[in-house]
């Protein structure tokens, strides 16, 4: 039995298993080049939203990795996963990290562009 503010690590700790985000659709069809541009812009500006550069770097590495490696990165960085698809995470100091789905997976309405092979 714990105090009112104590939490079970399984309920709110970094032990939540990372999973792929559910399929999503962008407001309009976009190309891979446009998607990559959006991702780069997000990652370049993300540290300005708060939190630490180290956690943002770990989240980027996890977002770009396979699921098993992503889980290892998240666990090693001490990231507390609120949503298993990584759209909402916290660090050990309580800083909040919101990740848009477009940095985590591709939209269902992604179209080919001249840069796709």
TrEMBL record:
Residues 1-31 are annotated as: Disordered. Pfam families: UBD (PF16455). Residues 16-113 form the DC-UbP/UBTD2 N-terminal domain. Gene3D superfamilies: Ub domain-containing protein, DC-UbP/UBTD2, N-terminal domain. Residues 1-10 have a biased composition (Basic and acidic residues). It comes from the Eukaryota. This is DC-UbP/UBTD2 N-terminal domain-containing protein. It comes from Beta vulgaris subsp. vulgaris.
